[in-house]
Amino acid sequence: MVVLGIESSCDECAASIVEDGRIIHSNVIATQLDLHQPYQGVVPEIASRLHTEWIQSVAMQSLDEAGMTVGDLDAAAASNRPGLVGSLLVGLSFVKGLAFSLDIPFIGVDHVRAHLYAPHLEQDIPYPYLGLLVSGGHTVISIVRGFDDIEVLGTTIDDACGEAFDKVAKFYHFGYPGGIAIDKLAKNGDPKAFNFPSANLHKGNHDYDFSYSGLKTAAVNQLDQFWNRDYEKTPENIAASFQKRAIAMLVKKLKKAIKDTGINRVVAGGGVSANSYLREELTKLYQVETYYPSLLLCTDNAAMIAGIAYQYLKRGDRDDLSLNASARVPSFKRRYP
Ligand code: KG4
Ligand code: ZN
Predict the structure, then answer these.
(1) Could you tell me the distance, in angstroms and rounded to a whole number, from the CA of residue 138 to the centre of ligand 2?
(2) Which ligand is nearest to the CA of 271?
(3) Could you give the CA distance from residue 197 to residue 76 in angstroms, rounded to a whole number?
(4) Which atom of ligand 1 approaches the CA of 166 most closely?
(5) Among the atoms of ligand 1, which is closest to the Cα of residue 270?
(6) What does pLDDT average to in each consecutive run of 10 residues of the chain (337 residues)?
(7) Which CATH superfamily is domain 2-116+298-332 in?
(8) What does each C-alpha distance from 66 to 6, 24, 82, 318 come to in angstroms?
(9) CA 132 to CA 192: how far, in whole Å?
């Protein structure tokens, strides 16, 4: 089954042709990065306008690169949640129109689930596993028992992990997007230069939850308070110290989840799973199988949309033209909706 996937939830306008949920015939990603760069962050109005202008040529390019025409498509899919609603609507409306005119099925898929599906495009990964989804919008640790069966153990109570990277980088003018800039700078820095705090959520039932706003505030507003004066206060040292603490928080919860559930297989996805230090730390986990997608499939792409869509379509799921986009999903706790 040949599926066209469209991803437009944020600032990447992407289209991909994937066969049988696994064979990637094309994976086009038109990034809006340069156009949001002056604002050091994604401007929703600019994002949705650019998606409107680009979507058709991006989709046509994905067909060209696959050596196919619209007549070869068996189905079409788009991410319809969560994300910037104006941006999501562009991809969703495009796919609805295309599916209607070609009289083929279409389906809207969840962007978060699609990120966790991304490594399945490249490798055979048995279920169950612990899924670590770390991106600009989400920080989720979950038990994944099937492509659509996710039990959320914990999530962020404030900023997402990637968001903290982006905000720290923005404040210090390290570069945009922030995660990549910090990852690069950190390679030449000493993580002992600043002893940033890690949040301990004592109150309530927060065994697997994360909090990144304290770390972000410490790095931005209280730098001197955590400075080890034997070291220079360089961008490299700030980046390395921040990154070390941000990743340590993820690894700590992951280790607890491995111990508590007895599941010793971990799959990471989302933009922050491209982080070189996180990858190093994951491979160090004792007797734990770790998987993550190649760099191109970590950040937003449409191959993950077409890939997971195939799994839904194969079991007979279809959406109708009344399907809407939504900025959020109802709940991130326990069984994922
Ligand atoms: O998955 P993604 O493309 O979009 C969302 O769904 O949010 O993730 C983007 C996030 C941004 O916060 C970006 O700074 C972060 O992923 N990111 C990284 C790295 N590459 C991208 N964070 C840390 N290290 C990286 N190498
Ligand atoms: Zn994403």
Answers:
(1) 8
(2) 1
(3) 46
(4) 14
(5) 1
(6) 97 97 98 90 94 98 98 98 96 98 98 95 97 94 95 93 96 94 98 91 80 95 96 98 97 96 97 97 95 95 98 97 91 69
(7) ATPase, nucleotide binding domain (3.30.420.40)
(8) 15, 9, 28, 24
(9) 26
H or E element, residue 148: none
Residue with CA nearest ligand 1 atom 11: 136
Does the fold of domain 126-292 match that of domain 2-116+298-332? yes
Per-residue DSSP letters for 15-67?
EEEEETTTEEEEEEEEE-HHHHGGGTS--HHHHHHHHHHHHHHHHHHHHHHHT
**Residue ranges of domains in the chain:** 2-116+298-332, 126-292
Any residues with CB less than 8 A from the CB of 74 and at least 6 apart, and which? 1, 2, 3, 104, 105
Q: What is residue 201's predicted lDDT score, i.e. its pLDDT? A: 74
CA 10 to ligand 1 centroid distance, Å: 12
Q: Which residues line ligand 1 (CB under 6 A)?
A: 10, 135-137, 162-163, 165-166, 177-180, 183, 270-272, 274-275, 299-300
Domain 126-292, CATH homologous superfamily name and number: ATPase, nucleotide binding domain (3.30.420.40)
* Identity of the residue numbered 207: D
- Specify the DSSP element, H or E, that contains 223: none
